[in-house]
Predict the structure of Uroporphyrinogen-III synthase.
Amino acid sequence: MSKREPFILTSQLHDRSFLQRVEQAGFEPVHAPLIGTNYRVLRPVNLEKIESCDWLVFTSQTAVHAYFSQVSKPPTQKIAVVGSKTEKALNSYGYRASFMPSTFSADVFVEEWNASPHVNETVAFLKGNLAKPTIEAGLHSDVTAVCIYDTVTLHEHVETITNLIQNHPQLTLVFASPSAVEAYVAAGGTVQPNVIYCAIGHITKRAMTDHGFPVHVMPSVYTLDALLEQRIHLEE
């Protein structure tokens, strides 16, 4: 492993300290997010729908921030989350999750939720505009879905990634969401032989393989820290 091999993160990064851990591992951290987000203003009619439900469901930390940055009073509902980063974002507002799936993915969430007593309770699903229909279509509960942020492609960072690929014998490229993969491909990103491709989550992996990308690293625990650890030991 080159001591200054670029380690490129293509997702938004709420915990900037991760870049320091990448550097401490001997890589050159590069943050080149392929997607950005714009929060939607929560209208009173949507707030009423949300507040009438028994549960709030978040599958991303962006959704947590988009919601709680606009809501001043504490929620009366129970809260369910998918993913440790989503849970950490929730905790930063002083709240705790009452339900989490055993694996950090929406499809496992659906399976375990439907097998729980909560299936008879109502759900407000706070999501982004590109969210897959997994939650809405899969839950046997009465689901009210409210889109609270929009995802936009940051095309300029694809050029940054392309230049790094052309100027380094090897680099690591990390995708943490299917939408980042789609944004990369839509902006002209292609498979390159000198890239170590990494995925967070099996749904992201599926998006990568659907577009012909190999997946060299995918940790069983769907976190960036677990991915970094596995990447460090890849060539041992």
